[in-house]
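Onboarding guide, step 5: your first structure request.
Type a short instruction followed by the sequence, for example:

Predict the 3D structure of this protein.
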Amino acid sequence: MAVQERVKRAKELVRTVRHVPLATVNEDGSPLNSPVFATFDSTLNLYWASNADAQHSDNIRRDERVFLVLFDSMEKGGGLYIEARAHEISNAAELGIALTVVNKKRTTLGRAEVGAGDFSSDAIQRLYCAVPQKLWVNVSRHDTEGRVVSDQRHEIMLGDLI
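The system replies with structure tokens like these:
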């Protein structure tokens, strides 16, 4: 599959994937991977809600580096790899933007909308945002029998997906 076909597939994954594996860095440097229910805005910022005391939330407060992978192993294959910087949303303006994006996805899925009070200082959950820094797609090389013999990462630009 050529790079352009992979980019097309990545766009489809951005529209359809609901749960995104979120990799963070534990205090001892070890990795932690947590699937989160998430949604993208029009510039590929990823938003999700998590318990403020979750390990991945603690990790983000300490180290903003995260890594995301969007894939669908059951269907057409392909994937999108995203190196990002994440943060807990703490100001009202950004919270309003995040709620608009999150509630659009929730209503599309028949779920009730959430409000600012669901993420206030007294609430259990917070909203988070991951801002992409680098993006890649993999392109596979096949042998004469059609088996994948290698995958090569190809960096793509954010503008290729939005």
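Each response can be followed by summary notes, for example: The domain at 3-160 is CATH 2.30.110.10 (Pnp Oxidase; Chain A).
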